[in-house]
Design a protein that fits this description.
The protein has about 170 residues and is an alpha/beta fold. It folds into two domains: about 1-35, no CATH class; about 40-155, Pectate Lyase C-like. It has four helices and ten strands. It has a four-stranded parallel sheet, with helices on one face. Strands 2-4-7-10 form a four-stranded parallel sheet, with no helix packed on it. The protein has a two-stranded parallel sheet with strand order 5-8. The N and C termini lie far apart (about 75 Å). This is DH200=94 genomic scaffold, scaffold_5728.
Amino acid sequence: MDRNTTEIFTEICYLGLLQGLQIISLIVCIAASYLDGGLAAVFNVTGFGAIGDGIHDDTEAFSQAWEAACSNGGGSSSVIVPAGRTFLLSPVNFEGPCYSSNVHFQVLGKIVAPNETDAWKGCVSNSWLHFSDIPGLVLEGSGVIDGRGSPWWKNVSLGILKNVCFTNPFH
């Protein structure tokens, strides 16, 4: 080993075992991303203003994170929904085509739909979370996507949902 490499390893040893493992993990992640065709760009929704309290509508922040990930050229991009938070989303479209070779949408936290029918008025598609024209899209993670369907099922069967963005399949 040359002198610079020796100095680097010595510094790592002085950082302590935990920090040393973090550095090794970082090196492994960087190496893995190069094997995947380039360094992956990460776009955490909280960096775009998402609050994640389950009360405030985080749709705009998710849209901005998606736009940043989708317009990132080359390599792969990841939209991260962090763990430990609940994100309220109104109906939203995540559309391509994307300039990234592939886009990962990683759900580690919880995404919930609105409970009120007014939140669904004027939406563009017949869906809550709509992904379209995105070859190579990967949806992954250990989080939860909760459409909060039970209040809606009763309303649909009673014919209450009129002028909402989707067609009632039961009538």
